Amino acid sequence: MDVSAYAALARQVELFRGLTIEDIAKIFAHGMTIRVHKSETIFYKGTVGSQMYVVLGGKLAVMDGDKVLAQLRTGDTFGEMALINSEPRSASVVAVEDAHLFVLSETTFQRLLTKRVAIQILLNIVRTLSHRLREANARAIQ
Predict the structure, then answer these.
(1) What is the pLDDT of residue 77?
(2) Percent of the chain having pLDDT more than 70?
(3) Which of 28, 52, 102, 123 has the least C-beta neighbours within 10 A?
(4) Alpha helices, DSSP H only, in 51-112?
């Protein structure tokens, strides 16, 4: 990836908010990207994982059985709770169309990132989870 691609990620992906282009380049150097095909399941509800994902392209669905809980698009993240605790996944994620994902493992997060970068990413994860909780609460009240 070139510098302009990292700059675009810094603007589009909440996970990378507050990080420098150099920080993002280092994260990508230690993580991996994968391509998934339409209808492919990234992970299943109830399984334990140690990775989180950033959608670099494509569209995915967060599923509980046959019920669609959320749609994920470029810039969205999912699986963040796997970096915070080792509890089973609360939903499945399935590709609605071919997709390109960045995978950040717990090992990479804990061993390879500087404390400053790790703290910023954790703050960004907390913001994302807080936003999702507010949305869930608003839906529950309606």
Answers:
(1) 92
(2) 96
(3) 123
(4) 81-84, 106-111
Backbone torsion region of residue 46, taken as left when φ is above 0, otherwise alpha when ψ lies between -120 and 50, otherwise beta = left
Please state the rounded mean pLDDT for residues 78-105: 90
∠ CA 101-29-76, nearest 5°, is 30
- Answer whether residue 139 shows pLDDT above 80: no
| Dist. CA 19–CA 39, nearest whole Å | 33
Beta strands (DSSP E) in the chain are: 32-36, 41-43, 51-57, 60-64, 67-72, 77-78, 92-95, 99-105
Going by the DSSP 8-state scheme, the letter that residue 20 receives in this structure is: -
Find all residues with CB under 8 Å of 109, minimum gap 6, and list them. 83, 118, 121
pLDDT at 27 over 90: no
DSSP state of 119: H
Radius of gyration of the chain from its Cα atoms, rounded to whole angstroms: 15
pTM: 0.83
Classify residue 33 as left (phi > 0), alpha (psi -120 to 50) or beta.
beta
